[in-house]
Amino acid sequence: MLRGRWIGMLLLCLVVAGVFAWLGQWQLGRAIDSNPPPPDITENVKPIDQVVRPGQYLDAPLVGQRTEVRGSWVRGDFLLVASRFNDGAEGYWVTGQLRIAGTAEPTSIAIAVGWAPDEAAAKAAAQRLEKTADGSVVSITGRLISEEGADSPPQDQPRRMDRMSPAALLGFWHDTDELDVYRPYLAAQKPLGGLDAISSPAPVQQSPINWLNIFYAVEWAVFAGFAFYLWYRLAKDAWEREVEEFEERHGIDGPSAATDPS
């Protein structure tokens, strides 16, 4: 076991184990958030331009952030989204395109205005909201929520939407030439048009410990230990073969002496 090749392999194992140990330490450092966001940080109302930019995805810690936007409703763009649950009851959302005020380029965000228990009530609310789309600037406060992704509507109902997707809504909106659109949508805190308020509680605070990363760190430690075990097993097997060959050459019977012939 003191042969040069085994010493060289031991040094190689030390290097490999050192790399594994560094990777384990790196994973462990990522497993614990040393600077977690303060509790209830999402409850502080912020202007939307301090939270996310048009076209950007909403970072996970900012999902549910209470945000304020100012703009004007675009006429003809109050649309319905089906399969919306409010405290366990299924119904409809009425959504609208809000053109943000004071931006250099035309920019819009999808607003979930409120909830209705059935399609008839939702359509009636949308008609009432259309009358308010007179170009006046309004202020809307609500929670920013990541888009759900577009879904193909039934062939017999090409305008039906079951997911809250600004990308899908954009296909029905008016006046969209060179329009910048926010990827997340805003669930309004106060409903309009006689609708019910959308149930949108504060997001649950995430644990600062990422257990998956801790598991990976333990895995790297196991790999480092296995590198040493592999070296020991290979060296021991080689030594035992040399002992057997030595005994055969010299006609020695019985158990081998517990000494290294090298």
Automatic annotation (TrEMBL):
The keyword Phosphoprotein does not apply. It is a multi-pass membrane protein. InterPro entries: Surf1/Shy1 (IPR002994). Its main location: membrane. It is found in: Cell membrane. The chain crosses the membrane at residues 211-232. PROSITE patterns: SURF1. Keywords: Cell membrane, Membrane, Transmembrane, Transmembrane helix. The keyword NAD does not apply. Belongs to the SURF1 family. This is SURF1-like protein. It comes from Microbacterium capsulatum.
